[in-house]
Design goal:
The chain has 323 residues and is mostly helical. It has a domain of 202 residues: ADP-ribosylglycohydrolase fold, CATH 1.10.4080.
């Protein structure tokens, strides 16, 4: 099902915080999606700024005020959230995580002139238009963070499925725009971490099982060294900054403030930190001022899609690539 503005406005009133009809897993799933959007909106204000520039202009940036180089309205989000929602719509509309459906959804999203779009995403979607092939060619230069920023819909849709299945479909959606080993392993680790937190696992255990395993297999991701400030779009920098902020803090607010005040690609690091922190701390952990500042339509879409994806049962015989 594709959620239109009219359908949501008619059938999906905003739920305030935790509600009795939500299970703990549903609560954390909704918090993860709202966390993605909040981190995106908060970080977009300081995207491409250095930590020193942020301190000089804001002191500590901790308010959703819009602006930034994109001149956003307060609470408006960027491609991190809107591309994730496009992927989620494709999953729900197709009945499976399907690369071709995702490619068409991303192409429609690009044709609608989003507020922002990454160069790698644009280039490989233009190639898809020409060839009809939903898998971008493998490239050592495509190790950006544009595929991992939209890992959440896969994590929710594949919750409870075998781990290998989750890895396969995460890689399938990623390859529509980013066909790169570092992007692949980062996206798989992030997707599985989200699922771990949905199950209620503790951060120390998740760090040992997922983050440490990622670093052991790919040492470039090591995040226990120099503080990663001003992270660019390189997927390694992104996860280093996110992991440093996420595992060093004990609540949603501190995590996001730490990560976005590092500057750089702050909307994406904020979005990824937000989805992890939302899954870890749940709705009660998200500050009310940030929830209230988020664009209302975006908030409705995130809530509805989170619940729909979590209850989605993939078609067992055709869950990948339409096979």
């Amino acid at each position: 099902m594709f959620w239109t503005r009219e359908l949501i406005a008619r059938n999906a009133p905003i739920r305030r915080r935790v509600t009795p009809d939500r299970s703990p897993v549903q609560d954390r799933a909704v918090a993860a999606y709202l966390g993605l959007a909040i981190g995106d909106a908060l970080g977009a204000t300081v995207e491409f700024m250095t930590p020193n520039e942020i301190r000089g202009q804001y002191g500590i940036h901790q308010t959703i005020i819009g602006g930034g180089w994109l001149r956003l309205k307060p609470g408006q989000v960027t491609d991190d959230t809107t591309m994730s929602l496009a992927l989620g719509d494709a999953i729900l509309g197709c009945g499976r995580v399907d690369a071709l459906a995702a490619a068409h959804a991303f192409d429609d999203w690009m044709r609608a002139k989003p507020v922002d779009i990454g160069n790698t995403v644009r280039r490989n979607l233009i190639s898809f238009r020409k060839t009809g092939n939903p898998e971008a060619p493998a490239s050592e230069h495509d190790a950006g963070n544009g595929a991992i920023m939209r890992a959440l819909p896969v994590a929710l849709a594949c919750y409870g499925q075998p781990e290998n299945q989750t890895r396969i479909v995460q890689r399938a959606q990623a390859h529509v725009t980013h066909h790169n080993v570092l992007s692949d392993v980062a996206g798989e680790a992030l997707t599985l971490m989200i699922q771990d937190f949905l199950r209620g696992e503790e951060a120390d255990a998740v760090e040992r099982q997922r983050a440490a395993s990622l670093v052991a297999a790919h040492p470039a991701f090591a995040y226990d060294r120099k503080r990663c400030d001003n992270p660019g779009g390189y997927v390694v920098d992104t996860l280093q900054a996110v992991f440093q902020g996420f595992f060093a803090t004990e609540n949603f607010e501190d995590c996001l403030i730490d990560v976005v005040n590092r500057g750089g690609d702050a909307d994406t690091t904020g979005a990824i930190a937000g989805m992890l922190a939302g899954a870890r701390y749940g709705l009660d952990g998200i500050p009310a001022r940030w929830l209230n500042a988020l664009d209302g339509y975006t908030r409705m879409r995130c809530e509805r899609q989170a619940e729909a994806l979590l209850s989605y049962i993939p078609l067992q015989s055709q869950s990948v690539l339409g096979g």
